[in-house]
Automatic annotation (TrEMBL):
Family: Belongs to the ABC transporter superfamily.
Functional note: Part of the ABC transporter FtsEX involved in cellular division. Important for assembly or stability of the septal ring.
Any GO molecular function: ATP hydrolysis activity
PANTHER family: CELL DIVISION ATP-BINDING PROTEIN FTSE (PTHR24220:SF470), IMPORT ATP-BINDING PROTEIN (PTHR24220)
Originating species: Komagataeibacter rhaeticus
Coiled-coil spans in chain: none
Chain ranges of the ABC transporter domain: 2-224
Matches recorded under InterPro entries: AAA+_ATPase, ABC_transporter-like_ATP-bd, ABC_transporter-like_CS, ABC_transpr_LolD-like, P-loop_NTPase
CC per GO annotation: plasma membrane
Keyword NAD: no
Keyword set includes ATP-binding: yes
Keywords: ATP-binding, Nucleotide-binding
Protein name: Cell division ATP-binding protein FtsE
SUPFAM superfamilies, alphabetized: P-loop containing nucleoside triphosphate hydrolases
Length: 224
């Protein structure tokens, strides 16, 4: 779960001179699925960066998986980060490593046995329909394929919190629907999930609670 109370965030090199997030408060329980909605520039990516511990809020209270992160020690934050999966808009795959090794990375960081890693990677890559591309390098893949690899890497160790930034934007309609169904299944198994999207059609098709931002402010926190 996570709790945000009165959270504001300003980039050091703010392009607009204003805050990317202003006084945002939200509370999401373990195993809930939330949409994060709002037009481009509303603050969605910034909010996801705070939730994935990539940046620290400028002010306010942030509690993630029971830990207040504002004054947490680095080692504690590093441990917490390992329980969070993130799918970023630019995928952040390592271009010189093949698909297998990219997806295996979180498990290798957990020092899992190589046989187990092989089993898990094959299972998740089959699920995303890319079991035949394990030897490819990310630059050899289409945008949609890279997005599916990034999703596989984010969910392979069953994180307690999963944040995804426009995870369907490079997918076709069928793949997008399949992904959201999978996210709902993960939520039922206890993962808290926040998905930022512009895709109104998919939000209508999979109604769920949503946090809606505009100009860095929370417009509403509602049941879709
Ligand atoms: P969204 O994901 O909803 O499109 P963002 O969180 O990316 O919104 O952006 C919120 C605001 O922060 C915008 O005004 C944007 O220009 C600004 N911003 C985003 N990233 C940066 C950055 N790296 N440096 C400076 N300003 C940024």
């Amino acid at each position: 779960m996570f709790r945000l109370h009165d959270v504001s965030y300003t980039y050091a090199d703010s392009r607009t001179g204003g805050a990317a997030l202003s006084h945002v408060s939200a509370e999401v329980a373990q195993g809930e699925f939330r949409w994060l909605l709002g037009p481009s520039g509303a603050g969605k990516s910034s909010l996801l960066s705070i939730l994935s511990l990539e940046v620290q809020a400028t002010s306010g209270m942030v509690e993630i998986l029971g830990m207040p992160v504002m004054h947490a020690r680095r080692a504690a934050l590093a441990r917490l980060r390992r329980r969070i999966g993130a799918v970023r808009q630019d995928f952040r795959l390592l271009p010189d490593m093949n698909v297998f090794d990219n997806v295996a990375l979180p498990l290798r960081l957990q020092h899992r046995a190589e046989a187990e890693i092989r089993h898990e990677v094959h299972a998740i890559m089959k699920w995303v329909g890319l079991e035949n591309r394990l030897d490819a390098l990310p630059p050899q893949l289409s945008g949609g394929e890279q997005q599916r690899v990034a999703i596989a890497r984010a969910v392979i160790y069953r994180p307690d919190l999963l944040v995804a930034d426009e995870p369907t934007n490079a997918l076709d309609e069928r793949q997008a629907a399949r992904l959201i169904t999978m996210f709902h299944r993960l939520a039922e198994m206890g993962t808290t999930i926040v998905v930022a999207t512009h895709n109104d059609a998919i939000v209508r098709r999979y109604p769920a609670q949503a946090i809606e931002l505009a100009h860095g402010h929370m417009v509403r926190d509602y049941n879709g």
